[in-house]
């Protein structure tokens, strides 16, 4: 019991940075975008547009080349276009006919404004990149609700994210917290919101919106880190559901005492699968099938239909594994699961192949 108290004292010593100015978080939070354009690409693109505009105006001037103070070659027309659109205006070439002056008023003047907007707009876009990111982060922090935070984006964190996405979670509703920039880059490519920092720190958890999160997946690489993260999350977000991973079974009780709602023992589970693989390999293949969300079979949860109330779940069309009633899971062989009651939810084996899309939609809420 001494270890959790030591963790709690460390939590109290953390600085509270959840309310820091948003502009200081541009290097911490990354909001994924559908298309990422670097400032250099943006400048090159707009510079190309400006060149095309200069050439187009030069073509108009050359088409009416006899209406100016001197006969114009195409080079002269290009020169006149450049000095006019850039507002330099040396005055050595001027329109002298009424038609040329009207063209300057109604065509070249708007083109001059567009030319300046391209150049100024490019500069502003580059200079205001941080401002844009600040606005995106501010909007995200104001609207984020009921999201899932994955702390640690190693093998376990990535697998948990795969299961969330396969279960229908939107990428924008998943926030990854990790201190490794490589892991965060991988998460960002998948459209996930990322927070760079240590998941044991209360300020990082607040930045990730833990007080508004629906659930938190604790998947660090070490058990002591998992305990500290769980303590931090439970202290800040008493109502969040915490699912934690621990390598050794003897540390499972520490996670439960720290506030985890569910604990998965990775080393023990892997050992059991290895033992089964030596005796009954098909059982392991079926377990892997059930744990793979994108192919074959998967364990899913659904609400009961109106015509299923009062029925025995063993006699339903689906292969039912258990009944969830008031947040409590009852296995199919328990007396409480003899009859389906209103408001119950069923854990069942679902076929994830595309041919079963109709069956999946039938049970959708």
TrEMBL record:
One of its GO terms (biological process) is potassium ion transport. The chain crosses the membrane at residues 47-63, 105-127. Residues 145-265 form the RCK N-terminal domain. The lineage of its organism: Bacteria, Bacillati, Actinomycetota, Actinomycetes, Mycobacteriales. Keywords: Ion channel, Ion transport, Membrane, Transmembrane, Transmembrane helix, Transport. It comes from Corynebacterium glaucum. It is found in: Cell membrane. This is Voltage-gated potassium channel Kch. Gene3D superfamilies: 1.10.287.70, NAD(P)-binding Rossmann-like Domain. PROSITE patterns: RCK_N (PS51201). It holds the Pfam family TrkA_N. The gene is kch. SUPFAM superfamilies: NAD(P)-binding Rossmann-fold domains, Voltage-gated potassium channels.
